[in-house]
Amino acid sequence: MAGGIREGGGDDLQESHEINVTPFIDVMLVLLIIFMVAAPLATVDINVDLPGSSASPTPRPDKPLFLTLKRDLSLAVGNDLVQRDRFGATLDGLTSANKDTRVYLRADRAVDYGQVMEVMNLLRASGYLKVALVGLEGAPSAAGAAAAQ
């Protein structure tokens, strides 16, 4: 219990019914220091030696079917432009209606992700479920190029 001193003087101390928060603050500061020291220890990296793979890369087909989404959002199969409403029929003609043919989808860097997803939905609606996304090997990413400057 805390005590208070009366202004009028006197020997007897009056009891105060207020909570003394000084010990509470001291405990909180000690806990804060403990957690500040212990927090970096909780994020320790674990070294894992992952096994290697003996699988060979998948061979490229003799005549791959490339579908290109250009910057102006036009579609091209190989080098020929394709209208979106005739998309499925054009692919069926090129693949002899073989829906298991892998379609290699490549898109310009400036094309919005939503547009790429729309083309993938067109492929799925046409029955072509095997889609491979094409990118440049070893090309620096935009974040890596910005960090290098």
From TrEMBL:
Any matching Pfam family: ExbD
Span of the signal peptide: none
Transmembrane spans: 24-44
Keywords: Cell inner membrane, Cell membrane, Membrane, Protein transport, Transmembrane, Transmembrane helix, Transport
Xref: InterPro entries: ExbD, TonB_ExbD_1
GO terms classed as biological process: protein transport
Record-level Gene Ontology MF annotations: transmembrane transporter activity
Membrane topology: Single-pass type II membrane protein
A Gene Ontology term for the protein's cellular component: plasma membrane
Record's subcellular location: Cell inner membrane; Cell membrane
Chief subcellular location: membrane
Family designation: Belongs to the ExbD/TolR family.
Role according to the record: Involved in the TonB-dependent energy-dependent transport of various receptor-bound substrates.
Record note on quaternary structure: The accessory proteins ExbB and ExbD seem to form a complex with TonB.
Protein name: Biopolymer transport protein ExbD
Organism name: Tianweitania sediminis
